[in-house]
Specification:
A 5-stranded mixed barrel has the order 1-3-4-6-5. The protein has 2 helices and 6 strands. The longest helix has 23 residues. It has a single domain, classed as Beta Barrel (OB fold (Dihydrolipoamide Acetyltransferase, E2P)). 24% of the residues lie in helices and 44% in strands.
Length: 140
């Protein structure tokens, strides 16, 4: 038997990280996943799927992702059942996340990383240009 879900979609709102008294972290968010076919009106419909992640996955996702980011989620379907004060049963189905892959990044972050890389290369070039090597230093 298998209970596995893989989704690719966009985060619908900024993620709020919560911590329990025992220190465990949790996030709950919704993922907008467009269908790959048009309805009778010629429009693409979108499914909004509830996701829950805990601990390290929750912390990293909350830190690096925001509304509109494209992510991939792997997990399993879970169903929560509870009874309210009026004795009415409620059901909630969501994906318990085992893995998140960040598929979109900010252009600014990419530019900053590229700038840091090119600056480190220039620093290395300057360092090698200032080193003086004499013939007696060579092993041959």
């Amino acid at each position: 038997m298998m209970n596995q879900v893989i989704l690719i979609g966009r985060i619908t709102k900024d993620i709020e990280l919560r911590h329990f008294e025992n220190g465990n972290a949790v996030i709950n968010f919704s993922l907008a996943v467009p269908r790959d076919y048009k309805n009778s009106n010629g429009e693409y419909e979108t499914d909004f799927i509830d996701i829950q992640a805990t601990n390290k996955i929750a912390e990293l996702t909350a830190e690096y992702c925001k509304k509109g980011d494209l992510i991939s989620v792997r997990g399993r379907l879970e169903k929560k059942v509870w009874t309210d004060k009026e004795d009415k049963k409620h059901y909630e189905t969501y994906v318990r996340c085992d893995k998140v892959s960040f598929l979109s990044t900010k252009k600014e972050e990419i530019d900053n990383k590229q700038d840091q890389y090119y600056n480190s290369i220039k620093t290395e070039e300057n360092a090698t240009n200032s080193i003086e090597i004499e013939d007696s230093d060579l092993p041959f």
